[in-house]
């Protein structure tokens, strides 16, 4: 069993861990395949979040839908 609290509260991995900052997951290059400890709250391999794949697919679908249907103006 992995101590997720200790990993997500380690300042070497997650700066300012006591503050709610969802943008920390959008900064820099990050591997979504489970090797980056910043994604530890979503787990990895067999114990991965069951909604992770659906969430990533949904974001891609929303982005495609936005690009196809939005009326872009310059």
Automatic annotation (TrEMBL):
<keyword id="KW-0560">Oxidoreductase</keyword>
<dbReference type="GO" id="GO:0020037">
    <property type="term" value="F:heme binding"/>
</dbReference>
<dbReference type="InterPro" id="IPR036396">
    <property type="entry name" value="Cyt_P450_sf"/>
</dbReference>
<protein>
    <recommendedName>
        <fullName>Cytochrome P450</fullName>
    </recommendedName>
</protein>
<feature type="binding site" description="axial binding residue">
    <location>
        <position position="49"/>
    </location>
    <ligand>
        <name>heme</name>
    </ligand>
</feature>
<keyword id="KW-0503">Monooxygenase</keyword>
<keyword id="KW-0479">Metal-binding</keyword>
<dbReference type="GO" id="GO:0004497">
    <property type="term" value="F:monooxygenase activity"/>
</dbReference>
<dbReference type="Pfam" id="PF00067">
    <property type="entry name" value="p450"/>
</dbReference>
<dbReference type="InterPro" id="IPR001128">
    <property type="entry name" value="Cyt_P450"/>
</dbReference>
<dbReference type="GO" id="GO:0016705">
    <property type="term" value="F:oxidoreductase activity, acting on paired donors, with incorporation or reduction of molecular oxygen"/>
</dbReference>
<dbReference type="InterPro" id="IPR051996">
    <property type="entry name" value="Cytochrome_P450_78A"/>
</dbReference>
<keyword id="KW-0349">Heme</keyword>
<comment type="similarity">
    <text>Belongs to the cytochrome P450 family.</text>
</comment>
<dbReference type="GO" id="GO:0005506">
    <property type="term" value="F:iron ion binding"/>
</dbReference>
<dbReference type="InterPro" id="IPR002401">
    <property type="entry name" value="Cyt_P450_E_grp-I"/>
</dbReference>
<keyword id="KW-0408">Iron</keyword>
């Amino acid at each position: 069993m992995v101590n997720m609290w200790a990993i997500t509260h380690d300042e070497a991995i997650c700066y300012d861990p006591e503050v709610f900052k969802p943008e920390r997951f959008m900064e820099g290059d990050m591997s979504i395949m489970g090797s980056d400890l910043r994604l530890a709250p979503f787990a990895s391999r067999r114990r991965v979040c069951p909604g992770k794949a659906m969430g990533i697919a949904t974001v891609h679908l929303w982005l495609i839908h936005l690009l196809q249907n939005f009326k872009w103006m310059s």
